[in-house]
Amino acid sequence: xxxxxxxxxxxxxxxxxxxxxxxxxxxxxxxxxxxxxxxxxxxxxxxxxxxxxxxxxxxxxxxxxxxxxxxxxxxxxxxxxxxxxxxxxxxxxxxxxxxxxxxxxxxxxxxxxxxxxxxxxxxxxxxxxxxxxxxxxxxxxxxxxxxxxxxxxxxxxxxxxxxxxxxxxxxxxxxxxxxxxxxxxxxxxxxxxxxxxxxxxxxxxxxxxxxxxxxxxxxxxxxxxxxxxxxxxxxxxxxxxxxxxxxxxxxxxxxxxxxxxxxxxxxxxxxxxxxxxxxxxxxxxxxxxxxxxxxxxxxxxxxxxxxxxxxxxxxxxxxxxxxxxxxxxxxxxxxxxxxxxxxxxxxxxxxxxxxxxxxxxxxxxxxxxxxxxxxxxxxxxxxxxxxxxxxxxxxxxxxxxxxxxxxxxxxxxxxxxxxxxxxxxxxxxxxxxxxxxxxxxxxxxxxxxxxxxx
Amino acid sequence: xxxxxxxxxxxxxxxxxxxxxxxxxxxxxxxxxxxxxxxxxxxxxxxxxxxxxxxxxxxxxxxxxxxxxxxxxxxxxxxxxxxxxxxxxxxxxxxxxxxxxxxxxxxxxxxxxxxxxxxxxxxxxxxxxxxxxxxxxxxxxxxxxxxxxxxxxxxxxxxxxxxxxxxxxxxxxxxxxxxxxxxxxxxxxxxxxxxxxxxxxxxxxxxxxxxxxxxxxxxxxxxxxxxxxxxxxxxxxxxxxxxxxxxxxxxxxxxxxxxxxxxxxxxxxxxxxxxxxxxxxxxxxxxxxxxxxxxxxxxxxxxxxxxxxxxxxxxxxxxxxxxxxxxxxxxxxxxxxxxxxxxxxxxxxxxxxxxxxxxxxxxxxxxxxxxxxxxxxxxxxxxxxxxxxxxxxxxxxxxxxxxxxxxxxxxxxxxxxxxxxxxxxxxxxxxxxxxxxxxxxxxxxxxxxxxxxx
Lengths: 454, 454
Hints:
Two copies of one chain form a homodimer.
Chain A lengths: L4 E3 L9 E3 L23 H4 L5 H8 L5 E3 L2 H7 L7 E3 L1 H7 L4 E6 L10 H13 L4 E6 L3 H12 L3 E7 H6 L1 H9 L3 E5 L5 H9 L7 H14 L3 E3 L6 H7 L1 H13 L5 E5 L4 H15 L6 E7 L4 H4 L1 E6 L8 E6 L21 H8 L4 E5 L1 H15 L5 H20 L4 E6 L7 H8 L10 H8 L7
Parallel strand pairs in A: 5-15, 6-7, 6-9, 7-8, 10-11, 10-15, 11-14
Antiparallel strand pairs in A: 1-4, 2-3, 4-5, 12-13
């Protein structure tokens, strides 16, 4: 291991505006539509569910820059700006001519990038007088971030946590309770949707789709209560762009510019966050950076899914979103990167991928853990299983550079640390994990069911 | 919660020398002595067990500044300098006129300050050609830090982990394995000392004393192998002074100077680290800062122990150290702050306390957790159960300031985060934890057994 080199900004360098890439896209994403009427939704249609400002941000296709409220920026100061690190230890271990940099979002108090949007969403709810909020969480990264954000603004929060995770990941549940949130294993008896499922299938261990249904139902049936979401939607990606905006300044400090930018991909929040600010220069024709989304081999919507309108949730309660999807009832294998177990991609990403403004690779689980261990031993930080997919894709690129004797500058986003996921490492080191490759037939079976709207 | 304010240094501000307080003490600590001859030990006497440079540092009473090797400083750059934070959220929650600052050592990749000494010790071993090192660990913070440090320098490491912790804290064990260390539950069959205990008491769950015996035996019986220790000894405190030296510069940035400096106390490593650099100005007569060590009520060596020569380990294999002690076979209650369950204090601290250069308070377990939850909700960071004792002592001072209507500047050391200790929080929130007050009789029973050397 050789020394790594951090590039640090001052608090005054925290961005003052988020970057809204839609404003700069020639081909705008297709609109989100009402499943019944197939009519495009307006911002007002989202008001009953989401905070009003967030609904407007979701539909904003014209303003490239949206000011970050001072209160949000002040709270970002708890951990932002985050470090950009030259991963000299990893470079040496791989013996590569590539220069590897990573943006370290794991330094947030909750251990991931999710807090960037959680704070913004809680702020907008508070500002319009909301008192209660709800959400769902799978692995628990989003739930933990929102629990802290809710406490910061004095909001009551109910988190529906997928039942299997509730029992398998007690540490994440305990983190949410410590911040003062109510955590409910989903399906639960607290909603009609939950009661129905429990009655029909008493031992059902839950899914993100069910948890979304419960959180939405609670929000809709509680006075002064709004629902929040941690990925997929445009406003979430928008809030995450602080990552890339900071990284841009830091690459300048390092005196280099990335040839390739790499991030793991679940719903798209951390990928968008690091990619969009750099991508604006590609869209303007000034740069030619390659953007690579690293998804799990077991949930390959970007590399093997279809481009079609689909629901955001398993149960089909959400509007229809234009997306690369494996079908909303696709059941991903039980990999440890719980945050990447999602059937679809947001509408912006899907359009960018369709227009070849970015590319995607899929990473087998064992390759992700192998890369994670290399990174931990070389750089000291134990990465989240999700983030390890970005590391694995970066290792591939670095080894290609070595083979080709080519110096390239690689930048990846370390979206979170893995300290709450140590049982996953234990299983890997014990040789108990496997790869899960999805068959063409399974993908076809799921996607064939989708209504052909596009 | 209001915004907190970070004070950040640059990498060039990482100290270039450690501060050796012994050189500035009028009353030097009494020497460590050989239990059989009662003769003071020389540095050479420690060479068979410890790295030579570390042994010399242990005995150095004349040089106030000891240069930090460039290789160590380079590795410190992975996470150092650490932030100093104005805890405005906590101030607001307590409604206190006090200004509260904390030094955030939880940002290291292993989550605590322990890495400051682990890197130095691994470096000195490597430099003299050592290939294997051993240590023991209780809760696992030191073991995790040394595992990473050993990997950085390509050393093989065997960690004897107290058996009960090995099973109760699998995450910490998994972290060590991920960094490539061998982790052995102690007592084990790999040493004579371990085999003897297992034969006599097959179900014995281990103790720090037994683990030390095993680690020492392995080091002494393995070619080219040295033993390392994570607290108590002078050289460990020395390495930790980077904490206080950075904090001093950062308080200057903040334009304030601490009236009181507070840290939790187990063996003394994090307390020494933040306190000694500031204390040198007290010793020189230039300042009048108060230093407060916060120990658990269940293990009150500083507030209720005796000052006497005692062994560093339960089994009595180490030299005799002049210390405030509860007796080396005192069995502390099973509190969650595992890192504070130690019977004695190092020789420097003990002399400073005897000479009233510092003071100590003892904190009940429930008060520590109550303070921890307040801090987590106000500042976002979930503290380690150990560090929560420092927070509780700080809360006491802040509330006293409120009562007296007095503005004081309080600085405490956040030695580590609690993300690996979430089951402790779960138990606290469920109402399952208790306080453990030690009786005078138990203390007397243990300390009466000590040979009266002083």
